[in-house]
Design a protein that fits this description.
348 residues, mainly alpha, two-stranded antiparallel sheet, 2 strands, 70% helix, globular
Length: 348
């Protein structure tokens, strides 16, 4: 069991990280003219979407592992865990992916006719690698659930002797899983932070201490260090990229990953100081927001922004618009179609 304060802190941290993921997917750096060098617009978007926001996915993996193993006692829990994740992950994953595919087809973004070959493509675009890119993380989680007995045994028996080697692999961007349908079976980032979540689920007092014993002054100092690291990485290598590409300097990678490691725990600590009933209420919609924040919504907010602002600056309009629309959509769906919402949100 964990305290109400820790539970609420994780909820607030979750909504903050969900907002950061939306920001990542609406950045418009690729539309910025860099022929004369990096601009303030580029640096600002890089700082927010490829600096601050880089903590989001590791945090999601961490709390997924934390809550999964919090109620996981032994191997007898495995069948129950599988059944639960079918409802909370697999079903919404497939339904949401299919809905997005159908809407994109109606919208004219996908050309598709019934044939055996196209059925294979449908399987790929709905099940294996959905066309809305954020689904890769849910796929990772589903594969992780399949190997949870191994993770639980290793972490339970070896503790940090299991966690540290995996975190070192992540720290130096060394992927260990094979590719499956053009994506890693499980990315090292998701695996490492999921396993860390498992470890903290067995040592919940560490997170309780994080929110109870850290003074505002200490948090402020850590926040400044964190921001300084994000800025330093951008100064060293403004165009760093390490998502299925290896475009980075070693020092950039080290600085970035130190900032991520600090940031994951910093956001939990900061959230404990930001507890608010409205944020806690909105946190119930984060899963729905995650799966529907990009396609097909991006077409709508993109068209609206096109009438107002140039492509390079669209981020500053599409990002807040997408947030407003997707949260309003989630709340509306819950009120008007509660049964549909329950299925699409995995019962959350």
């Amino acid at each position: 069991m964990i305290s109400t304060k820790l539970s609420d802190s994780l909820r607030v941290a979750n909504i903050i990280c969900t907002i950061l993921v939306v920001a990542i997917h609406y950045n418009t750096k690729h539309d910025i003219d860099l022929s004369s060098g990096f601009t303030w617009n580029y640096y600002l978007q890089e700082f927010f979407t490829n600096g601050i926001a880089r903590i989001a996915v590791p945090f999601f993996a961490f709390i997924a592992g934390f809550f999964f193993f919090l109620a996981y006692d032994n191997h007898s829990s495995y069948p129950k865990a599988i059944r639960k994740r079918v409802n909370s992950l697999l079903t919404p994953y497939l339904l949401a992916s299919l809905i997005i595919f159908i809407v994109e087809y109606i919208y004219g973004e996908i050309r598709w006719e019934l044939s055996f070959q196209n059925l294979t493509l449908l399987m790929r675009d709905v099940v294996l690698t959905p066309i809305s890119v954020q689904f890769w993380f849910l796929r990772d989680l589903m594969f992780l659930v399949l190997i949870t007995p191994i993770i639980f045994t290793l972490v339970n028996k070896l503790k940090l002797l299991t966690i540290v080697p995996i975190m070192i692999l992540w720290f130096f961007d060394i992927e260990i899983m094979p590719m499956f349908s053009n994506k890693y079976f499980i990315t090292i980032e998701t695996l490492s932070f999921f396993m860390m979540g498992c470890y903290f689920s067995q040592h919940t007092h560490l997170l309780e201490s994080l929110i109870d014993r850290m003074s505002p002054k200490i948090i402020y100092v850590i926040l400044l260090v964190y921001l300084a690291l994000c800025i330093a990485r951008i100064i060293i290598e403004p165009d760093m990229a390490n998502w299925y590409v290896d475009k980075y300097l070693l020092q950039s990678l080290i600085i970035q990953n130190i900032s991520i490691l600090i940031g994951v725990f910093l956001i939990i600590s900061l959230s404990s100081k930001m507890l608010d009933d409205k944020l806690i209420y909105l946190s119930q919609f984060t899963f729905f927001v995650y799966i529907f924040h990009l396609l097909p919504l991006s077409h709508l907010v993109g068209k609206i922004a096109s009438f107002i602002i140039s492509d390079a600056y669209k981020f500053y309009l599409t990002f807040p618009l997408a947030l407003i629309f997707v949260f309003v959509g989630a709340i509306g769906c819950q009120k008007v179609l509660p049964a549909v919402y329950k299925v699409l949100s995995g019962g959350r």
